[in-house]
Amino acid sequence: MTRRATAAALTSVLSVAAGCSNEPDHAGRIKVDCSQTSAATVEDFARAPLPASATSLEVFCDGVTDIYVRARVVMPRRDLRRFLRGAGVDKPLRRGFRPFSEREDDPPTWQIKSIKRVLGHEEDCLVVTTPACASGLAGRKVIVDLDSPHRAIVYLEAFTT
Question: Mean pLDDT, to the nearest integer, of 120-129?
């Protein structure tokens, strides 16, 4: 092996080990660089295309081999149905369902237990088969805050384990 080929192989291995690759891994999952969270992180990893009207995006990401992404986004209520369809959520959301809870280190914008009109959805990829599950996710969870008459606040989790 030439010196250049050895250096290229080593760089590739180190990038994958650091979680910096956007190339699919052996299970077909997209690897995420958690230091570069953005709308693309949510759209590519969680398989949830955001509408152009989405604002106030907050993304939290953790992990190297097994990835955990949480996002919060605000959108006009008129775009909620299209967002859910685009994310492959085809079953009705359940009223009062809170598939995840607040954490100690959550910012003030993540006050989930104070939501009065809440809808939720959960996908366990061991139980259901969806396009998101086929991408290597172990599951996804969604909470929708409908306390405002004109906007929806969507909380989304996606994880590989």
Answer: 82
